[in-house]
Amino acid sequence: MTVPVSIVIPVHNRSELLRQLLKSIESQTVAPLEVIVVDDASTEDTAAVAGVCGARIVAMERNSGFAASVNRGIVEARGEIIALLNSDVTLERDWLEILWSAMDAASADFATGTILQPGGLVDGTYDLVCRGGTAWRAGAGHPLRAFNGKIREIRFCSATAALYRKSLFSEVGRFDELFESYLEDVEFGMRCAVRGKRGIYCPTAVCQHLGSSSFGAWTARVVRLIARNQVLLLARHYPPGILRRWMWRILVAQLLWGALAVRHGRGISWIRGKLEGVRSFQINRSTSPIEDLVVESEREIYRLQAAGGFDTYWRIYFALTGRPR
Questions:
Q1: Nearest by Cα to 19 from 56, 66, 60, 52
Q2: pTM: predicted TM-score of the whole model, two decimal places
Q3: pLDDT in tens, 151-172
Q4: H or E element that contains 58
Q5: Does residue 313 lie within any of the structural domains?
Q6: In total, how many domains does the chain have?
Q7: Is 299 domain-assigned?
Q8: How many helices (H) and strands (E) does the chain have?
């Protein structure tokens, strides 16, 4: 059975991981309409690997980042549904069938499943955002049993491994290419949420995610981009009134993340990222209904952290800002 899904895979090097992903796609219980590999100026044999596995190859002229590569793939795609997959993901055999069926049954705008780390802990599910402007993938770093996930409606979705209706990108716009990589999916999710778009989380659609395979975890580039994009996220979606009311929470959230960067020896990169973000900052003059969405999202972060055991970051954040109400 073939489903009307175009799989889009942005990739920059690490072709051995792409090979594993493509093999897991070949073994799916339902077949996608097409597989598009967007080669983001790799210096390895990415195109050859994709070609051997039967994928269509779209080459970027220069390394432009995740957002630009995904946007190019979306434009090229022919399917009614777009499946976005990081190149360092491998899918369980029924991932596509379960997620496509759940999305279709719920008439959802997007859908995601359970993403596991190689060791079995949760890498991510759906996204949540706090009032301080930092994001958390629900359940990340916790045992799956502690997360106790169930099928539910969601407002924000990670693009690591997810399905989207192609029409959604016409209504909301594609990913913001200024973000390059990191938090571009959170920003897109916030645009979807304020327009009333809703998704579904289906826990039985499972995949494995290596994580940070292209650039590495806590490299200077990764820290700089995340630090910058945290500021851009505030600029895009927090009007002046919210910035003033939530300034303490924003300072706490941003400085705590900076402390993590310092702990990993990346304090200078964090500062550079924040300065880049400030230079690009433009006040949002809109009156978008983001406030209620973010407040409820922060409440859910607190509920899940309380149920599964507080991570150090969130324990300190809520100790300094108070329990969300």
A1: 52
A2: 0.93
A3: 999 999 999 999 999 999 999 9
A4: strand 56-59
A5: yes
A6: 1
A7: yes
A8: 13, 12
